[in-house]
Amino acid sequence: MRFRSGLRIAALIALALWAVWWTIALVRLELPLAGRMSFAPMFGCDFTSQSDYAARTWSGMADPYGDHRHLFHYPPIVIRLFAWTPYLSSMTALRIWVVVLALLTIAGVAVACETRKELRLEVPPLAVALACVLVTFPVVFALERANFDLITLAAILLALRLERRGGAFAEIAAGVVLSVGPWVKIYPGLIGVALLALRQYRVLLGFLGGGIAIGLAAPAETLRSFEVLRLAIERSRDAPFGPWSHSLSLAWLRIGDAAAQHGIGALARVPSSLAAVAILSPILVWVSWHVYRCQERRRLTYPLLLWVVALGSFVPVIANDYSLVFLPLAMVAIYSLRDSPLVHAAVALLLLPFLPIALPIHPYLLLLFKLGGAFAVGAMLVRRARELGGFAPTPAVAAQGAAVDAGAGGAAAGGGAFSATVKL
């Protein structure tokens, strides 16, 4: 008890320092101590050169896809989502967006802690959970760049609330909200796999239908965004693989180039995206199968959605670590002391790239730590799925379970609230 109280006090102090740190950053528009991190400090550059730039250009009746110096390569829905920025100065809009990103992260942590209660896991103080997430490198990087990956988190949180209202309309609406994610960034498209594993077919229908509708809403702009994206990918192929990246595709390209210089051209002939998908597919299939067969699979909805989004972010050639912000949120939702020693070891190694300071570790080794952390969260999901009932029972097992429930007597009443299915 004394240790728990001390931990809470330490977390509150860390959160206070974090708040002061970011208050100074918002006033100066420069993050203090950012030079000690692994990236070049450019406060708000993704906001000012991408979303805000595109919205202001579009509001001025010009084409944001025409200036290839900016290489704005996101679909038109991103422009519409930031249509509010031209009504403010660029710096005011930037400050507001950074605060929104911080609030979204805090909301994500709060839902993760509620998920732990539903899964009957150890529940840390909220302050401790917040401190563990807010100081991680992906979160700091996301706020410093003022990127918009967390729009997908907002979609997940809203979809959770929509579907819990029940009914076909709410489920389809939840899917439509989730379909925004793949149109903001490509990698959240793996949400469709998660919905299949959860057997949320009406949500999946809304997800597919919403995605088609968004793509067809402004077809000419959508096609131009794809063309600019192709140019951006081509330019990024020559970029060095830095410690701030976790792109398996880019790493494969760099390794293939190095192998070709030593007379080993086989690696270079394998498409990099195909190699990335081949590396990630086994863990994705393994986790999805266990969730699909789990009796109480819907309790895993939130961490599963977070995990597949984080896993998908390893595939694009452009994959900066701010898109890994979903991984610490998923860990807070399902990590447990009863996980295997191998999982604990992977989490410990993940702390190295997640520290908000640069370490003298090779970028490829950091990539392995990040990938190992993602695989560890997948193992946690499998463990939680087994704890929630494992595979769907055969008739004999179901009958045995009914007999056990009948003998439980009053205990069943006490656990009634917990046994209620938590939907998406």
Residues in helices, as a percent range: 55-70%
Number of helical elements: 22
Largest sheet: none
Model regions low in confidence, pLDDT < 50 over at least 5 residues: 392-424
Using only CA atoms, what is the Rg?
A: 22 Å
Helical/strand content category: mainly alpha
Quantity of strands, as a count = 0
SSE order, one letter for each helix or strand: HHHHHHHHHHHHHHHHHHHHHH
How far do the termini sit from each other? 34 Å
What would the average pLDDT be, to the nearest integer?
A: 88
Q: Give the CA-based shape.
A: globular
* Tally of separate domains: 1
Please indicate the percent range of residues in DSSP E strands (runs of 2 or more). under 5%
Q: What is the quaternary state of this protein?
A: single chain
Short description, anyone?
68% of the residues lie in helices and 0% in strands. It is mainly α and 424 residues long. The chain is globular and about 60 Å long.
Q: What does this protein look like?
A:
With 424 residues, the chain is mainly α. The chain has one domain (2-387). It is built from 22 helices and no strands. The chain has helices at residues 2-28, 45-59, 76-81, 90-118, 126-134, 137-145, 151-163, 168-178, 180-184, 191-197, 201-217, 219-236, 248-261, 266-269, 272-293, 301-312, 326-334, 341-354, 363-387, 395-408, 410-414, 416-419. Helix 1 (2-28) crosses helix 5 (126-134), helix 10 runs parallel beside helix 15 (272-293) and helix 10 packs antiparallel against helix 16. Residues 392-424 have low confidence and may be disordered.
